[in-house]
């Protein structure tokens, strides 16, 4: 349950620290005092949209935080644990800057606004004064019935099935409609792949062919130059080998050639002669073993020409042909398997449709059963609220088109006068009746809620007199099992509360501030008297307020 709410520089609030208790808490104050500020601050902590207008004039930012006791909230603890956040406490914080930007934290860790909303759904349930307007929408009718039926998981799974089914149906339709185009593409791909199959370009073949072509094209020149080099090494008396041999012989006869610099030079000349003789042998071998092969050269050039021609045809570089070949083959294989894929899609489509219809029928049966119980419970609350002649019903009828939520149209209906058939709320109920019907439905909906904190924001609008006292009793009864917070203008409702918070506005020449305090018994009497009789409190009004408070507390016991 909500145990603390701290507000800093929000709207006309400078600083406000509130503590809340279990049971029913009434929140009252004059019109414009700022009761909506409290709920606005709480809403921001729960992930509602923020804007710069909420920041107090002259302040840089508004800082809001709400602390919850989640010892009994297994779903909230599981949510926190799944995100590796502390589970012994739950502190939601929201900061809104003067430029409209906002940041959020959960237990001190930064989070998204979506996280606040998601966790907030595990903590608190807000029933607003505009709920009766939402009752004119059949989507609200279905949501209320599903809340009472308690099959949210099944409905969510049904929505997933519906999305999968329709996504697959779109895919199947596109595949079917594009079959002719697919066949044409398949024919083109088959021709392209067959052409590349015939080319049969091997790995590294292009580089090898280019190197071979260069060698063969210059082979005659290579032989001529190799022969010249061989002759230069060892041909007649002017060859390098002969000249080196002569130099070595003459140098070796010089006195002292076996030592010093001459000895080193003589060694190098000997080595050079050996190298030249070896080079000559290699050159002679190359010339003698190599033959010109114009036919091979023609084949290599023709092969390279074909590779380049096909590369140009596909608008790729020659070295990219192997990758292109692989991709085109894979695409063709995928298209060749398209017929099987289409049949597989058809089978899967039938399976999903049947799964959806089976699940939707089960949900429909659950809704039919829940509708009877829900109608009876609302009927009981209407009688309690002075509409004992009214007859309330929940009509569950089939839809022509399957929807994510199922096959049902849910309509809340009422007959305000005996003998008249029930009709949809929007067509029958007057404003005052709709307010009471809305309250009865919200009380029943709250009784089905598993949340520990229920907030009622002026749900008693349009109600007065004895009915108002009954409304207070209903809210107090809810407060025996959950924390109930209600913003009200009715003293009959406020008198029933376990705790009473009072909001008032103080204005000076340069500032306006809102203060909130928990009232003791004397304070409650004065506030009830104000709500009963206005600003001037007479002894009679105070006595009436004192009697109302005492009677409410006695009836509660």
TrEMBL record:
It comes from Salinicola lusitanus. Residues 192-229, 262-289, 335-369 form a coiled coil. InterPro entries: DNA_recomb/repair_RecN (IPR004604), P-loop_NTPase (IPR027417), RecF/RecN/SMC_N (IPR003395). CDD domains: ABC_RecN (cd03241). It comes from the Bacteria. Residues 2-505 form the RecF/RecN/SMC N-terminal domain. May be involved in recombinational repair of damaged DNA. This is DNA repair protein RecN. Belongs to the RecN family. Pfam families: SMC_N. SUPFAM superfamilies: P-loop containing nucleoside triphosphate hydrolases. Keywords: ATP-binding, Coiled coil, DNA damage, DNA repair, Nucleotide-binding.
């Amino acid at each position: 349950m909500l145990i603390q709410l701290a507000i800093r520089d929000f709207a006309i609030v400078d600083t406000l620290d509130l503590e809340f208790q279990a049971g029913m808490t009434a929140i009252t104050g004059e019109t414009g005092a700022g009761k909506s500020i409290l709920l606005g601050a709480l809403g921001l902590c729960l992930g509602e949209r923020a804007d710069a207008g909420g920041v107090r004039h002259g302040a840089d930012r508004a800082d809001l935080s709400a602390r919850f006791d989640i010892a009994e909230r297994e779903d909230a603890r599981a949510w926190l644990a799944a995100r590796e956040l502390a589970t012994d406490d739950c502190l939601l914080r929201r900061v809104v800057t003067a430029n409209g930007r906002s940041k959020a934290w959960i237990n001190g860790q930064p989070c998204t606004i979506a996280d606040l909303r998601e966790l907030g759904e595990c903590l608190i349930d807000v029933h607003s004064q505009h709920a009766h307007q939402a009752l004119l929408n059949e989507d609200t009718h279905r949501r209320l019935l599903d809340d009472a039926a308690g099959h949210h998981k099944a409905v969510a799974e049904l929505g997933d099935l519906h999305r999968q089914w329709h996504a697959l149906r779109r895919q199947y339709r596109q595949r079917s409609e594009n079959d002719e185009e697919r066949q044409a593409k398949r024919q083109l791909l088959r021709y392209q792949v067959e052409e590349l199959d015939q080319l049969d370009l091997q790995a590294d073949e292009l580089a090898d062919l280019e190197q071979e072509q260069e060698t063969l094209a210059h082979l005659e020149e290579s032989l001529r130059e190799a022969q010249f080099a061989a002759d230069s090494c060892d041909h007649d008396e002017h060859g390098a080998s002969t000249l080196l041999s002569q130099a070595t012989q003459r140098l070796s006869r010089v006195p002292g050639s076996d030592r010093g610099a001459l000895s080193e030079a003589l060694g190098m000349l000997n080595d050079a002669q050996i190298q030249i003789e070896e080079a000559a042998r290699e050159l002679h071998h190359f010339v003698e073993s190599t033959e010109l092969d114009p036919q091979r050269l023609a084949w290599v050039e023709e092969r390279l020409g074909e590779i380049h021609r096909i590369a140009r045809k596909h608008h790729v570089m020659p070295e990219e042909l192997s990758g292109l070949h692989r991709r085109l083959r894979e695409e063709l294989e995928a298209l060749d398997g398209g017929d099987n894929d289409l049949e597989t899609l058809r089978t899967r489509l039938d399976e999903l449709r049947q799964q959806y219809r089976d699940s939707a029928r089960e949900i429909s049966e659950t809704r039919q059963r829940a509708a009877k119980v829900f109608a009876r419970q609302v009927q009981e609350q209407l009688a309690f609220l002075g509409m004992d002649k009214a007859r309330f019903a929940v009509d569950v009828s089939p839809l022509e088109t399957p929807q994510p939520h199922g096959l049902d149209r849910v309509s809340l209906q009422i007959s305000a006068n005996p003998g008249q058939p029930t009709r949809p709320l929007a067509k029958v109920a007057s404003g005052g009746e709709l307010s009471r019907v809305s309250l009865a439905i919200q009380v029943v909906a709250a009784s089905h809620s598993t949340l520990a904190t229920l907030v009622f924001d002026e749900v008693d609008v349009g109600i007065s007199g004895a009915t108002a006292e009954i409304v207070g009793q209903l809210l107090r009864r809810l407060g025996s099992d959950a924390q109930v917070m209600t913003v009200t203008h009715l003293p009959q409702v406020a008198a029933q509360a376990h705790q009473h918070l009072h909001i008032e506005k103080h204005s000076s020449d340069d500032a306006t501030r809102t203060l909130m305090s928990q009232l003791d018994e004397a304070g409650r009497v004065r506030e009830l008297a104000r709500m009963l009789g206005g600003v001037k409190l007479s002894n009679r009004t105070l006595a009436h307020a004192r009697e109302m408070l005492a009677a409410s507390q006695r009836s509660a016991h």
